Amino acid sequence: MTIRPQYGHFINAKFVVPYNGQYIDSINPDDGSIVTKIAAGTAEDVDKAVAAAKAAGPSWADMRPLERGKIISHIGRLLEERIEAFANAESAEMGVPSMGAFATMVTASNYFQYYGGLAASLQGEHIPVGPEQHSYTVHEPYGVVGVITPWNAPLNQACRGMAPALSVGNTVVLKPSEYTSATALMFAELAVDAGLPEGVLNVVTGAGAEAGEALVKHEDIAKIAFTGSVRAGREIGKIAAEKIMPVTLELGGKSPDIIFDDADLEAAVPGAVFAFLANSGQICLAGTRILVQRSIVDKFAEMMASAASKMPVGKDKPFPSLGPIANAMQFTKVLEYFKVAEKEGAKLVTGGKQATGEGLENGFYIEPTVYVDVSNDMRIAREEIFGPVGVIIPFDTEEEAIAIANDTNYGLAAGLWTRDVSRAHRVAGKLQAGQIYVNYYLESGVEHPLGGYKQSGIGHEKGVMALKQYTQTKNIIIKI
Ligand code: NAD
Asked: Fewest Cβ atoms nearer than 10 Å: which of 171, 178, 266, 461?
């Protein structure tokens, strides 16, 4: 299975020519070459895909969950078998170095294996109300779920939404990012090879304002699972409010990573570097606000800058290396933030510009960047940059660290490093974020529930919790 030179939409288990005949180039951010062409979807294409998903719905929902789960798990195993082709495609389209691409494909496969196993686990309850009534609950699928995903970990994000949605009996129309749609289209084909009935999973590609919005507005879409920016999440939320439609929103972050002066710096320095540089900083959970206790801030900044500057830049450099920023728009945005930082008076200790050198000439490469003398009210400390940029903010006391950490509109994740177990529990309990890491940073295990506090989102993905996000609960009361 390799990437095709051109893709139509995937509807009813077939590739379909787009209604308007238009295609979008998908560009390799490492060298500017065209990886493939994807269909530029419109409302007409969305209509077709939703109709296919709707028609496939009843028999998929009625299938015994154990049997449905076997198909879902098999999809995950087949992805594992074909992992190389998928990792190569994702690496070409998104720019992630191949080790990173392999890791995210493993996670994508795990979502299907995990939720396949859980398909028969969702049970209703008996509600005790005395001998004259029999009251119980059942969890039913919504029907057709729209899954809309970003470009930073394309197949991983798509599988995170699709696997639980399908496992509880929904059918799906996926709209991947217009920058990175290839692996989603390859995956839809693989799912059919694994035995998924036609129409159960459909993929419509194209721009957010066109295909994405049409999907959200479609009257037969009963729920949206969205991963992406706060801006788009807000627009989707407005449409959902009009339709009275449930949404899961997994949005951005500006997550704090707190380094106390009793931390094991041998672990904290590489851990904090990984937290903001993994995937070239293009991770919603990235620990980009590094709060360091004042007594160690100079030493820590020096160690961190030294470790970050040694990170090889280049997609094909030895692991771990930094790949390019995934697209031109994002590349320009990160470079703009370097001007903002300078204007705001932050002190650059390493990086701060486009990376150059052999093999980087035509790619969207940026140097690993660390700023000090940053205060939490600067834009570079408040806005999600989504690039390899960490800002170091000093603090004096535990209370101050918590106050600075929580002084943000976001609340996706937070990290803290300390040898004091009481402090670890105390601080973790006070941080306003949906996922907290103690003495490490970044978790890709599919079992951990993830949901943003504040503007980082609504609802949960991952873990057992996600299953109920894709069902509605009915209470049935029988008079005896
Ligand atoms: P984006 O919001 O621009 O796009 C995400 C998806 O939404 C794309 O498929 C896009 O086509 C679509 N879209 C855009 N506008 C739309 C609209 N009005 N209606 C319907 N669909 C629309 O985000 P991006 O730039 O692709 O991704 C980066 C963002 O994603 C960052 O903010 C990052 O933090 C966030 N993210 C969050 C998580 C999480 O789990 N919380 C994970 C990964 C990325």
From this structure: 266
